[in-house]
Amino acid sequence: xxxxxxxxxxFILLVLLFSGCAKEDDACLELICQQGFTLVEANGTxxxxxxxxxxxxxxxxxxxxxxxxxxxxxxxxxxxxxxVADGASLTIEPGTIIKGAEGTGSLASALIVARGGKIxxxxxxxxxxxxxxxxxxxxxxxxxxTNLDESQNGFWGGLIVLGNAPGSFEGNVEEFQIEGIPADDxxxxxxxxxxxxxxxxxxxxxxxxxxxxIGENNEINGLTLGGVGNxxxxxxxxxxxxxxxxxxxxxxxxxxxNALVWAQGDDAFxxxxxxxxxxxxxxxxxxxxxxxxxxxxxPEGSANGRFTFTNGTLKGLFTEIADFRKSSMGLVSNCKxxxxxxxxxxxxxxxxxxxxxFSGMLEIKGLEFVSSKSVSxxxxxxxxxxxxxxxxxxxxxxNASVSSSEIGADLSAFEWTYAYSSxxxxx
Length: 427
What we know:
Distance between the termini: 62 Å
Radius of gyration: 22 Å
Oligomer: single chain
Low-confidence stretches: 1-31, 386-391, 398-402
Number of strands: 28
Number of domains: 2
Strand content: 35-45%
Mean pLDDT: 84
């Protein structure tokens, strides 16, 4: 019983400390690591390295408060929320594998880059960075495992990056708390005055089997971007098998190129709170449980934010095409849309969004539909008030709906992805 109480006390101490290996704590830390783990000190933090495994696993807990590097010959396990704190920088080498532990609610695992922190995670086409579940049997040096597929999700959380760029928030406040993080945890804040804020770089990253629930009807997106600024580099991102949205933008100005979402449980690409960056060259491939390809919400405060989505390919299955609502404003252009069922449609859900279409604040143009339905049938819900917006847009889309190799995404940009190697891009 004494040993059990000591173990519990030491566990609480480790959770509170998060980092640092003070000598007086070594006994506690060694006890925590004794079940098949060895305690090591690296980069100023305490790490338990799993014994007797073919490839070493480094367990990560809590706050990262000093700069550190994760290397490709180790697997990093996220135990709960691992947070890159304000002023710290996390570098992740090409080919590194990160696995999230199982857990829901407050125990859901996620990698969070707090406002003021940085992540420098640039893989390559040959050595992408893999973020997946601890249940995935992928090993060091591999780019895919063999025991999970795109239908299996919700095993861990996801990647959350928060910055100082502006958004349009309810109440016209300058900052907001990201969903799923308690209000008293300040590492969950995002937003600010700096449109050119820099949260680091994300390149050639595949995020798999995430979306763990953190509350009722509240799951973590594959990639969440809250108030991320346009000096942040984000390119070549894949999200698949995520329980909630693939990629969601909460305000911010960051630009994203070459993004693929496959078999998400909710929406593929979701816009909120006046996001005003550009998503260029993107692919959506529906799964059995997917909802919309695009879900576009407008600003929540008085500040406007106008996004751009261009050069996209959307392959439906049993899902909706796109939903524009809550005073949405922005541009969707040059997209190829196919595979959707006869009851799928493209909708403008509110009068304010319809008015934005007439004023030019919301533009939908240059779309190619491959469907047995007419464009008029696909777009039947575009005019909530019965005005001429639907007719006007239908005529524009009819005129634009011609076969062209220049419409849609450049699929060659995604040959590095799991989706490509699994045949999901064979269309």
